[in-house]
């Protein structure tokens, strides 16, 4: 039985539109399904548990990376999580998870992938209290997420279909407001001190922040995570490093460092905000571990 978790607000209303198309297609093909619709944040995990309890072996997230984050956090907590599969109908603004797993952006094409049923097991990231299917981030990006979520201009821009501009505005503001700090990374027992840190991302996939391929060599099923760090005394250097991500030249940028491992402890000379798959968290310092092969995902063969 297919079960769907639908976030109608994702992608500035794309979730609702896509679900209408998917629902009509399922009914026309006479495919049995159940569904739950979220009416606010932090509901998808509980609704996922309900669907599993009602006999759904496959749970499909119709939404963005935040919805996928909630659904997967519930899937791996179920005692028989390896028997439950994750499907995705991408309907967010960033869709990093879908992009990393070659899941079609068009909803009916994504549905066909789910109906074909080819699946693979992938890793996840975890702290003592949170799990992530994409990444943990700390530094300026977490401040950007917080500022955007609290900004009055986000709602106004969403209403006119220009929601992505809210992140651009927040990014420009934080480039002048954020103060870099010294961060300490203990990776598999070895400690590295990095002064003037702007961004530290621990990621399981190449993409970050909506299409930025920051860790091009990250693989979601290799039993390790990748770490991306930007550090610089000069703000202009940060800007050039971020801009070079889109061309892929950031891998040679002097302000950028890469690491990989299975366990990492992140601390700093002051408290920092954290974002988990784009959702805010205040659990800092961080201790992140890889959870190998804990999630089964339906993706193109």
TrEMBL record:
Its cofactor is Mg(2+). GO terms for biological process: phospholipid biosynthetic process. Residues 1-131 form the DAGKc domain. The keyword ATP-binding applies. Keywords: ATP-binding, Kinase, Lipid biosynthesis, Lipid metabolism, Nucleotide-binding, Phospholipid biosynthesis, Phospholipid metabolism, Transferase. It holds the Pfam family DAGK_cat. It comes from the Bacteria. SMART domains: DAGKc (SM00046). GO terms for molecular function: ATP binding; kinase activity. Belongs to the diacylglycerol/lipid kinase family. This is Phospholipid kinase-like protein. It comes from Paenibacillus larvae subsp. larvae.
């Amino acid at each position: 039985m297919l079960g769907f978790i639908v976030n109608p607000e994702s992608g500035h209303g794309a979730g609702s539109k896509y679900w209408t198309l998917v629902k009509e297609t399922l009914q026309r093909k006479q495919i049995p399904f159940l569904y739950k619709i979220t009416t606010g944040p932090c509901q998808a995990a509980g609704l996922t548990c309900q669907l599993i309890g009602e006999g759904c072996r496959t749970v499909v997230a119709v939404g963005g990376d935040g919805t996928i984050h909630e659904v997967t956090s519930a899937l791996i907590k179920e005692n028989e999580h390896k028997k439950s599969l994750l499907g995705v109908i991408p309907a967010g603004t960033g869709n990093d998870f879908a992009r990393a797993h070659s899941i079609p952006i068009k909803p009916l094409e994504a549905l066909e992938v789910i109906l074909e049923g080819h699946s693979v097991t992938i890793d996840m990231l975890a702290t003592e209290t949170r799990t992530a299917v994409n990444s943990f981030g700390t530094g300026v990006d977490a401040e950007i997420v917080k500022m955007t979520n609290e900004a009055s201009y986000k709602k106004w821009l969403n209403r006119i279909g220009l929601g992505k501009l809210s992140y651009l505005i927040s990014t420009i503001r934080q480039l002048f407001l954020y103060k870099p700090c010294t961060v300490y990374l203990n990776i598999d027992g070895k400690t590295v001190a990095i002064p003037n840190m702007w961004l530290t991302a621990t990621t399981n996939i190449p993409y970050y922040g909506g299409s930025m391929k920051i860790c091009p060599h990250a693989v979601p099923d290799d039993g390790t995570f990748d770490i991306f760090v930007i550090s610089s005394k000069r703000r202009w250097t940060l800007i050039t490093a971020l801009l070079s991500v889109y061309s892929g030249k950031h891998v040679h940028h002097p302000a950028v460092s890469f690491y990989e491992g299975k366990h990492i402890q992140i601390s700093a000379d002051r408290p920092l905000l954290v974002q988990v798959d784009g959702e805010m968290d205040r659990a800092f310092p961080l201790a992140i571990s890889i959870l190998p092969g804990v999630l089964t995902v339906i993706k193109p063969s």
